[in-house]
What we know:
single chain, two-stranded antiparallel sheet, binds zinc ion, Muramoyl-pentapeptide Carboxypeptidase, domain 2
Amino acid sequence: MGARRAIGRGTTCAAVFIAAATAGLGAAAPAVAAVAHVVQPGETLWSISAANNLTTATVAAYNGIAADSLVYVGETIDVPTVEEGAAALTTAGVAPVATAPVAGSPSGLDPSAAAAWEQMRQASLATFGVDLYPDGPLSGYRTYEQQAYLYDLYLSGQGAPANPPGTSVHELGLAVDVAEPPMRDAIDQIGAAYGWYGIGSEWWHVEYGGG
Ligand SMILES: [Zn+2]
């Protein structure tokens, strides 16, 4: 009997500890582990994700489905914790949001754009002493899923303006978001000779328009 009481007390303490930890994270905080959610009428992958403070791409990656998947009433969607979601994004090849510039030429560009970029980069180094590189791993070529991830961040107020997936020049490997304003200044002066131009109102965004 003594042993039973000891087990019971321990269980109660654990439950209180979990409840307190969850409360500390705010009312909308997800549980400490993935939770199975049964889709209700009117819900979408986006609404389920937003209700749990997660991006659509995160929940999609955790469930092994595309970010633009339709979900159906009665279907079960697993809602991950932030950590589980981040791990799923990494496994799926959808990088987390850019946090550090990537030295060297951007990877994944259209071959013509990449060759022109490298020539322009060498000219910028020789003329201005300014290296040209993207602001992060998602600042050059992006997959559809990566664009969807950035678009979700934008819609949820966590990221810079991003085009809807399927509509970005980045998905064609024809755009780069440079890391520093002096890079844009250099491209404004010499880029046209290599087919690279500053386009639009964002100082960091440059596009390849052909040589
Ligand atoms: Zn851009």
